[in-house]
Fold these 3 entries.
Entry 1:
Amino acid sequence: MRHRLQGHKLNRNSAQRRALFKNLARSLIEHQRLTTTLAKAKAVQGKFDRLMVQAKSGTLKDRRLIEAVINDRRLVNRLVMDLAPLSRQRASGFTRIIRLNRNRGDAALKVRWELVDLPQAEPEPTKAKAKTRSKLKIKPMPPPTTKESLKPKAPSPVPTSAGPVTLRKTP
């Protein structure tokens, strides 16, 4: 029976588990999505939700509590100033787990773990296509010059025969 057992050990000791949780949380804040195993994502998801709840309030006390876990003021500011305001109306469930495929080596289920309310990237302005065709043909650019391309090349070997060699039987 599993009564009163909490958390996931993930076959690690407590220091390794704590480091894994911190690194996954840091990566999610920095990149907004990451690929990991299902077990790791489920283990960290609840802890990350608690960080998001603290980030939503944004008080000095909560910032310090978040910084105790994240250890990077830049990421704490990003979480509190950029990501938490996107989830103001959401009480919980700040992340989603999307199942992908299995690992080849150990058949562990891979998932994409991402924020539900992703920041929207500003679309780049598209240039309107010109209706007139240019009469000039554009030539491809030559490859960039490197140190290896400036070295003198060795002469190519001279073939010893003019064609393929055929063996004939003599009568």
Entry 2:
Amino acid sequence: MSTQTEATEAARAVERPVNPGRQRAAQPSTRVESRVWTGRPSQIANLGAFVWCALLCWLVIPIFVAVWRYLLVRTMRYELTTQRFRVTSGVLARRTDELELYRCKDSEFSQTLFQRLFGLATIAMATSDESSPIAVIASIPACRAKELREQIRNLVEDLRDRKRVREVDYS
């Protein structure tokens, strides 16, 4: 009888999780964050600097300035998910700035004359985040920027409804 009891206890031990807290944390949540859009600014934003560097290339230093400006834009990456907006930048050291979308107060679509000539646009988001009160998506294709601004607006409203958060200004 003792062998049968030991076998039953051994079977129960196999069924029982070793660390139940860990297993609960590993379960997938119902609110899965998924990527909506990723992009980079256009190198056309550096066109003015590149022209000046080309004109003054005989000084040698502008060549390094042009390469540095190219690398700054090349290493910048925007990522919009269903819950956050991330900006990753940096040539030698990386920095990632995250913005919870429900903190977005307002968004603005703008085009300078230079951007209009090349079909680019900028989206600026005013936020209640202290570390980054204004988040900017600079020099992206204008047709995509209009759609992206609407997506951001819809995502912000959905997140606010889901989290039951409303923005209140005490000014």
Entry 3:
Amino acid sequence: MSQKERNATISAKKVRIAEAGNTYDYALAAIYDKGYKVFLYPDPYDEGKQYYWAIVPGREFTASDPLTLLGLIGIWERFGDDWQQRIPKYYDQLFERTFPEDGYESLDESGFNTLVEDLRMFFEAIGEPLPSPLTRKTLANFMSEYSKKIEDRAKNT
């Protein structure tokens, strides 16, 4: 099988990986593969809790779990020693884009259509259909109701 055929097979397969304990060994494997030594350090104030440290000469990363540790290493790999440089506020943008205060009215047609395409991808992945037809108002209502439904589900579990 050629690389092109393998890539086509891989892209046709749906994969979902979620944060859970069964991913810790894979995160640690990726960290070890990058050449880090990993250590556990007990939290002196919280019995039973420990911190994971990944160390190579000149670099130290610490986190409460291996997935977060791998993420921190990824941040350093992407941004380097000057990792605290100014970048767009993606976290705020993501929240504002998903739950805008103006019911999506500030988005131009292109921006709204892009958002709808993105949300369709997400809601399809979680098995929740978006309403049709989808207007700014129906999307705002759907997002508000969906958020309430998830909050209620969390309260009842």
